[in-house]
Amino acid sequence: MDLSLIGTIIAVILTLMVYSYLIGDNPLYRLAQNIFVGVSIGYITLVVIYNVIVPFVGRTLQDRPWLERVLPLLALLLGVLLWFKAARPRNVFSNAVLAIIVTTGAALGLGGTLVGTLLPQMQATMLTFSSDIGSIIGNLVIIVGVIVSLGYFYFTAKPDGTRTMTAGYVATAGRWFMMVAFGTLFGFAVTSFFALLADRIKFLISPGSLLL
């Protein structure tokens, strides 16, 4: 039998097993879920071994300056020490490695947020006005939306704990702008989900997939 045909049959069976959750939690759905998790973990493990670890060891063993050999070995040692956390959660060495990972990730995340999100947003807000009335209105909406949305997170209050009237109006406008933005994103997400659902249903009722 053709391997592509076998793959199609397995895909149809697994799809029906996943959709069986619509009638309630059942063993077929849990089996499909476990298969998906197991296959994903196995695939990721192979990718890490052959695309990360093997090339990493090969580059380390090459004839290179001693510093370029020591640094990869140090990174490998830190990775090995991190595994001790599974056996002893309060291990000093694994906690130190985890602290290095968290602080480095926080620093990279902060830098990425500033360079990749905040600065481009500031640059996108600095718009020029043209003679087109539609462009002018759109640019004004963007500028006002950014300002009032940032104003929503301005929590400075009076000594009695209340906001000024202006700050309250700005925060309310910012909340409405964010609600519209989140609603739009949610609508796009739902539309994408329905598109995927329609594509999967088309796959199930296709004569070729069902061997008719």
Question: What does this entry look like structurally?
Answer:
- With 212 residues, the chain is mostly helical.
- It has a domain of 85 residues.
- It is built from six helices and no strands.
- Helix 2 runs antiparallel to helix 3 and helix 5 packs across helix 6.
- The mean pLDDT is 81.
Task: List SSEs in N-to-C order.
Answer: HHHHHH
Helix content: over 70%
Radius of gyration: 27 Å
**How many runs of DSSP E, i.e. beta strands?**
0
| Unreliable stretches covering 5 or more consecutive residues | none
Proportion of strand residues = under 5%
Write a concise synopsis of the structure shown:
The protein has 212 residues and is mainly alpha-helical.
SSE blueprint and pairings:
Blueprint: H1 3-19, H2 27-60, H3 66-87, H4 92-125, H5 133-152, H6 165-205
Main features:
single chain, 212 residues, mainly alpha, 6 helices
